[in-house]
Amino acid sequence: MNFIAPINTDNLLSEAEKENLYLKLLEQINKDFNFANEPIDFPLSTKPVELKIQLHEKIYRLIQHKFAEYLNLLYIIDVPEAEVKKLDGSNLVELSEQVAFLILKREWQKVWFRNKF
Asked: What is the reported pTM?
C-alpha cells in the first residue's frame, strides 16, 4: 500500500477521517507544536474545518510575529525546506495557508505510516 500525498487540505482531512486517523492527526499536531514550544491544543472534538482555520491563523501569527519560532516549528515537524522555498511569499495570508497545508501533509504522512507499518 503506497502513501498518496493529498492535493489540498480538504482532501487530506477527509482522507484522515475516512481512514479513522483524524484523531491521531490532531494528537500528532498537538505533540509536535508542543515539542517546538509553540503549544497549540486542538481538543479531540475539533472539527476538520476548525482545524484548517485555526492552524492557518497560528501559522500566520508565527510568520508575522515569531519568525525564528516558525522556522524551528517547520524544522521539528520536518517540513521539506525545498517545498517551503517554492512558495510565493508575497501574500502572507496565502503563504500561511500553504505552509499550514505543508505541515498537515507532513503530519498526515507520519500518522499514516505509523498506522500502516
From this structure: 0.94
